[in-house]
Amino acid sequence: MQKTTIKPDAATTPRRGRPPDPAKHQAIIDATRALFFAGSTKALSIEGIARAAGVSKVTVYAHFGDLQGLVRATVLAQRAEMTAILDQLPTDAPGLRRTLIEFGGVLMEFLSSEGFVTMHRMVASQASQQPWLGPLIYREGPTATRDKLADILAEAVRRGDLRAHDCTLAAEQLLGMWQGLQTTGLFSGGCPRADAATLARRIEQGVEVLLRAYAPEPAD
């Protein structure tokens, strides 16, 4: 099946030299995110998004080019909010544990939220109609988040705070320990959302396992 792309016509191209309105730009992203988290397929319709944002379809096209561009911008905005903590907190030897635990808390709060679960179910239901959607979200969301986490671990290796290892694999393993079976259970409706204490324990123990597994070799 060919990749679906919605392209604006000439009338939707913004006038040269006219900068996009930041308020409208943000309103469109916010509306798209709200529709996704509500599980609405209107999140996959330029017309539906424009109506929710209170702008015209021409404005949406002018800001994002097409539906894929808009969805990508929305995923990037969500990812930036979630990974900002990795740039704001210290990642040196004393601060690495704290930063990983706090990031895990932010991430797991999102991954276990009703909005995320609802969105995931909607995206899965659209896999055959919108074959570009899942790969885009996976690439710009989970994969990029894993790579950001791997960069933090690689920097710790360069400082000598962790011994050399496959940082991408280690980041993926840490994410897996944090999520456990909960993600599958939530998507299928097979288990309730874990309480805060359970999530905190899972996050802290996952970080402890990783830091012990890749602790520097003792000096001779």
Outline:
It comes from Marichromatium purpuratum 984. The protein contains ten helices and no strands.
Output the keywords.
single chain; 220 residues; mainly alpha; Arc Repressor Mutant, subunit A; Tetracycline Repressor, domain 2; 10 helices; 0% strand; disordered N terminus; HTH_TetR; DNA-binding transcription factor activity; Homeodomain-like_sf; DNA-binding; TetR family transcriptional regulator
- The CATH homologous superfamily of the largest domain is called Tetracycline Repressor, domain 2
Shape: globular
State the separation between the terminal residues, measured CA to CA.
59 Å
Report helical residue fraction: 55-70%
Secondary-structure element sequence?
HHHHHHHHHH
The domain tally reads 2
Characterize the main sheet.
Answer: none
Q: What is the CATH level 1 assignment of the largest domain?
A: Mainly Alpha
Number of strands: 0
Q: Please give the CATH architecture of the largest domain.
A: Orthogonal Bundle
* Secondary structural class: mainly alpha
Radius of gyration: 20 Å
Mean pLDDT figure: 89
In terms of DSSP E residues, the strand content is under 5%
CATH topology of the largest domain: Tetracycline Repressor, domain 2
Number of helices: 10
Low-confidence stretches are 1-15
Protein name: TetR family transcriptional regulator
GO molecular function: DNA-binding transcription factor activity; transcription cis-regulatory region binding
Keywords: DNA-binding
